[in-house]
Amino acid sequence: MSVILNGVYANLSRDPKTYRLNGFVPTMQDVAPPTRGFSLGESEVAFMANIDHMFRGTLIGSISPDNDTIGVEEGYIQTIGLSHGFTLKAGRFFSAIGYQNQIHAHAWDFTDAPLAMRVFLGGQLNEDGIQFRWVAPTSLYWDMGTELGRGRAFPASLSDSGKNGARSLNFFTHVGGDIGESIAWQTGLSHFRTNPSGRQFATTDALGNAITDSFTGTSRLWVASGILKWSPNGNPTYNNLKLAGRVLPA
Questions:
Q1: Higher model confidence: residue 133 or residue 83?
Q2: Between 32 and which of 19, 189, 197, 219 could a Cys-Cys bridge form, CB atoms 3.0 to 4.6 Å apart?
Q3: What does the pLDDT look like over 179-236, one tens digit per residue?
Q4: Which of 74-83, 114-123, 240-249 is most confident?
Q5: In sequence order, what are the residues at sequence separation of 6 or more whose Cβ sits closer than 8 angstroms to the Cβ of residue 37?
């Protein structure tokens, strides 16, 4: 069991209340930076335990800094007893799309999500569904897997369409390794697909009037990511450098 309290001070050049990304949805306050000045960041209460020799359970509740509500950020059961590098996860979890999406907000290097994640994923994508992952028995780290989700959040429909089965699909693979004792690297490739029906979003017309648009169709997203970490002899306590990048062509 763990409790993480995350206090934040943000000095922002642009007002979060009027922040806008032209040409992208979601927009305006949906993708705005955090509150200016002092605030309580995303704090968490986590419970994790082995159920038996075959399964592990995880429940993470987060306190929203905007409205002080408590929600289930992640809650899933994961296998620990499958052989040959196979793992199955079922419940609510952060998607393995890209690199940073799986990292909780309190462990980010900055107070808000990268711009590419905000405009294409609405910040951070977590799904209700199943994840199947395989880690290869190779000298380099190599995994590959797939996720079937309910489509509970953007870029899906943001509402229950009443359909059975999976409404989002993600394929992913990551390759990584070490260069000597001080450098670690990882690259990844993901393909996400969903079929939103009546996905609504708030925007403005040419005269500046507030309107609501909707989209029905197919959303496809390719994500290529890479990260390079350096720390003397693998110890990042005093000195470290991290270079990360991502490309998300829709």
A1: 133
A2: 19
A3: 999 999 999 999 999 988 877 777 777 777 778 878 888 889 999 999 999 999 888 8
A4: 74-83
A5: 9, 10
Which residues does 22 contact at the CB level (< 8 Å), separation at least 6?
A: none
Global pTM value: 0.85
Distance of alpha carbon 137 from alpha carbon 157, whole angstroms = 38
CA–CA gap between residue 124 and residue 120 (Å, rounded): 9
